[in-house]
């Protein structure tokens, strides 16, 4: 094993202040993504697209472990995309196991971008079965990780690391307003400067006292569609939450975009798009074909698509369009949603929605497209949020529980099966009622005393799991 690289990647081994000072940069942002592992004792495979904060999450996990009194020398971080392959990975972990076996306490192995190594799953399976280390592994190739999932039942839990949902975005922003410091062995990370930057950006619409009240009220609301009327308790915070939703439509769930917005810097459109396309290209897709297909899919958000029509526009065959869409879906870039009447019917119609409003903005900017109508982007956010609230890591059961539908010859935006069939319409402009609809999502109308419920989008999204 190459000690020079290991010591550079794990400066906390040196003890004293150096390790804490190295980790400080991962807490220095004004906006901190508030995500944590459900249980530090399990093995985890964390999959998601690039630029959503997986590496930063691992380093903050290092700090969390140190804060829980884990000896710093028991925490190992490996940057797998800088290793020579599965042989070097296995050899490094074997040697670490040998030199660490006399150290007391639980040992942790953090493998960043492990899917960059060919046959990675064989090594990670061995590490999980050996149980010398608790393993946290990340990968930016969700399709690749999905294809190897059969190796890990009972050995590791799978976490889908999407861009932040609107609820996660709000929680993270509010958390960032209060996060003043983190105490580590030998060093205290002071966040006061970063916190003041955030307060300066967000004021005067949101002060600390108001933020505390929102966090308190938000904490008691999380019950899915069957209890969605409970979000009406947030009515007194609507002015702030609606302003945050408008901000979310610009920066989405990408922490790097939010940070650039706070710093009044150019949003990272090109970086995110190139990283995203570069990763998808590794799945065997042609960049030239992607560059023709993605603009067509963007223009189709909220409308039915036909593989044959897309194939003509992109100048490929229908089978190629199907393969590309399915790969893009498994790469966390978009979702293909089917006609749904309690059962999914792919042959009766399909729609495509993207994973995040920022990726929509970034792709539009990259391809020089006109901005989509706001109502279509909002419908995209709602569909994606509902799908995430009922999805599981790999089985894609959400496809069997939601889609778009028909009612008396007219299309229904969203139909969801959750204890009963919920029919949902998005009316962000003029609101009009329609028989048979259960929930109308509005810009600012709130009526929960009778059906159909009328709920502002910004409140509805906060009620999803």
Q: Please work out how many helical segments DSSP would assign.
A: 18
What CATH architecture of the largest domain do you see?
Orthogonal Bundle
- Name the CATH class of the largest domain: Mainly Alpha
Q: Averaging pLDDT over every residue, what do you get? A: 92
Helix content: 40-55%
CATH superfamily of the largest domain: Winged helix-like DNA-binding domain superfamily/Winged helix DNA-binding domain
**How many β-strands, per DSSP?**
14
Percentage of residues in DSSP E strands? 15-25%
Q: Biggest sheet, in brief? A: 5 strands, parallel
| CATH fold-level label of the largest domain | Arc Repressor Mutant, subunit A
What is the number of independent domains? 3
How do the strands of the widest beta sheet line up side by side? Answer: 2-3-4-1-5
Report the structural category: alpha/beta
Query: Ends: how far apart?
Result: 44 Å
Shape: globular
CA gyration radius, whole angstroms: 23 Å
